Amino acid sequence: MARINHTPDPNPTRAKARARRNLTLVVWWGVALLLLFLLSTGAPWVLVIPLLVIGALVITNTIQVVRGEGAEQYAIEPGRLSQSTLDSDPIAVPVTRAPDRREKGRRRGTLHFAGGRLSFVFSPDPQSRSKRVKDDLEGTTAFDAWPSDISLGPRPSTMRPQLVLVVDGITHVIEFTMPEDLAAGMLGKVVAGAWFTQLLELGAIPSNANS
To answer: What's the pTM?
Structure first.
C-alpha cells in the first residue's frame, strides 16, 4: 500500500511484511465501514464508540504507511547482518525497548548493527523535552555485544512479536511495532523474526540452549 509503483521489492522480508500490513488495513477498513453501515441502518448507537476507536486507529495506521514510517520499511533482507559486516555498512532501525514483556520502562531508541556488534541506544524522551527536564538516558547505550554473547528468547510469533535478548544477564525486549499498530502481531513477527534468524546464524545462543 505504501508502494506506488508495481516494481517487485528486491527485499523479500519487506515484501512479506508489506503484504501483511496491507491485508490488515483492508480488514480493519472493512470493519470500520461495516460498523458505519450498521449505524446507518438503525443499529444501537453504542456502536459509535468502537467505530470511533477503530476509525481513529485505521486512519492513523494508514497515514503512517503513506508517510513510509511503518515497521515494514525497516525490515532487513536475508543475510543483511552478515553483509553489513563484510561491506562495513551499518544498520540502524527505530525500535522500542523494555526490560520485560509487561512493557515497564518502555522506551524508544535505535537498534544498531555495526562492526559485527548489536547495540541499542536510547532516543530522547518526548515527555522530558516537553517538561524541560534533563533526560539522563538520551544517547545512552543499553547494550553493545557480539551475537555470540547474546542469548535469544523464544522465536517471535504473532502473539509475541518481540525480539527478546539477554545480554550479561539483563533481558531486553525489542519491539519493531508500536502498541497502536493494528498489524503489530503479524508484521512484528516477520520483522523481528528476520533479526532472530540472522542473529542465530551469527552465533547467538538459542532459547533451547539456555535451559
So the answer is: 0.83
- Set of cell numbers at residue 166: 539477554
Note whether residue 62 is domain-resident: yes
Rounded distance, CA 61 to CA 155, Å?
26
Q: Which three cell numbers stand for residue 181?
A: 499498530
pLDDT one-digit tens code per residue, 117-162: 999 999 876 655 555 555 567 778 999 999 999 999 999 999 999 9
Domain-located, residue 108:
yes
Phi-psi region of 31 (alpha: psi -120 to 50; beta: other; left: phi over 0): alpha
Residues 164 and 183 grouped into a single domain: yes
Q: State whether 188 and 201 are in the same domain.
A: yes
Same domain, 120 and 64: no
125: which 3 cell numbers? 524522551
Spatial separation of the C-alpha atoms in residues 149 and 98, rounded to whole Å: 19
